[in-house]
Amino acid sequence: MALKIGDVGVGEGNPAFIVAEIGINHNGILDLAKRLIDAAVAAGCNAVKFQKRTPELSGPVGQGEIPRETPWGVMTYLEYRRRVEFDLPAYREIDQYCRDRAILWFASCWDTPSIDFMEKFNPPCYKVPSACITDLDLLRGYRKTGRTVVLSTGMSTMEQIRAAVEVLGREKILITHCTSTYPCKPEELNLRMLNTLKGEFGVPVGYSGHEVGLQATLAAVALGACFVERHITLDRAMWGSDQAASVEPHGFERLVRDIRVIEAAMGDGVKRVYDSEKPVMARLRRVR
Fold it and tell me: Is the pLDDT of residue 148 over 90?
């Protein structure tokens, strides 16, 4: 089964759709977001992704007034969430910047008003964050848009995934395997879940990784992931909860390059003698 994100085919023999998740690694700084977009373009990514929240609606229960240290001083969690959210003028600038750089962009929306907000930009798809997979009302809001929906499955049971798929339907859905630990230990990545999800749901399946390094993401592509998402950062030592599980620009360039090499190397599974082998065969094979 294949679907489209924008005009790009995903699944059924198409090259893996590669997303650089900017998320909140921009720390609310528009210039930093643009630099991350530039890095994704230079790496050869298909799209960048942001996260959109209404802080009063989507914050963890009971956390809003708890103070925390930030680069801007001590502030409550709610104040911090407001500080790193881009407003409408900022997203208009991001929209135009991505158009100018010829890269798709979309967002994970954590609440229904955020979906309404993003609809202003005609996104090519949406992504359900793993934290929201059990919010069935939110999933109905996603489905109502009629757009392709990427469902992330971190910290979820198979029963929860089934319930989410039931709400979203299977016509315009792509499921990503994910483990929601930042960063994630290799022994908890469980890449064989890619086959489990594909076998049960019969829809395109991808991988959203939070591990350190690139090896597991490359293995996911070899196992058939048709969509790949990794967080992007300019510096893993920067302030922010997702930075340590992110990939720096040169790493992203290697990731995209190696994914394309793996795809070329996978072939079609039909045994043949290549023209490049024939001179070697003539020289080395004694019995024909």
Answer: yes
Angular region, 78: left φ>0, alpha ψ -120 to 50, beta rest? alpha
Q: What's the whole-number average pLDDT of the chain? A: 94
Which of 131, 139, 195 has its CA nearest to residue 164?
139
Please give the pLDDT value at position 196.
Answer: 98
Tell me the CATH number of domain 3-284, given options 3.40.50.2300, 3.30.1700.10, 3.20.20.70, 3.40.470.10: 3.20.20.70
Statement: residue 60 has pLDDT above 80:
no
CA–CA dist 189, 178 (Å, integer): 7
CA distance 146 to 111: 17
Q: Report the SS3 class of residue 210.
A: coil
Judge if pTM exceeds 0.85. Answer: yes
